[in-house]
Design goal:
Blueprint (H helix, E strand, L loop, with lengths): L1 H20 L25 E12 L8 E10 L5 E4 L8 E8 L7 E3 L3 E4 L5 E6 L6 H4 E4 L2
Amino acid sequence: MKMNKMLSVIMAMVILVGCIVIPASASEEEIIPLEAEIYCGAGYPKCDMRAHGVATVYSGSSSFTSKVFNGFGWQCANCGYLMATEGDPTNSGIIGRYAMASPSNGARVQYNDVAVAFFGGIDGSSYGNWKDDPYFGKACTFKRY
């Protein structure tokens, strides 16, 4: 009887040690790394830019007279960030010249349901397909709805 009890204890210890030493069967392909870069102000990996009417970019700080371009308005459905693009990335894939601002930056942007006005000129330009752009390809998606 003592021998059976001792054998049971030894077997339990072997099973316990085996469970501790042998890792769970997860291959490297099954491990999904966390996104290192978060571009959306609401904590999402990308800004979900939705069409937001027409946009006009002005070079002056508050004047509606020094127009740089008329284009397309976009707003992130998650964080509300606003953008004006010269091109239509949902149609041609080209952003062209652009301006960007937080909706809380009243000195930089004014907007309503159908139009966006940016002041202070453009922030840059991108003439390749936006999906291939080193920033926009990682930071945004564009949708017309």
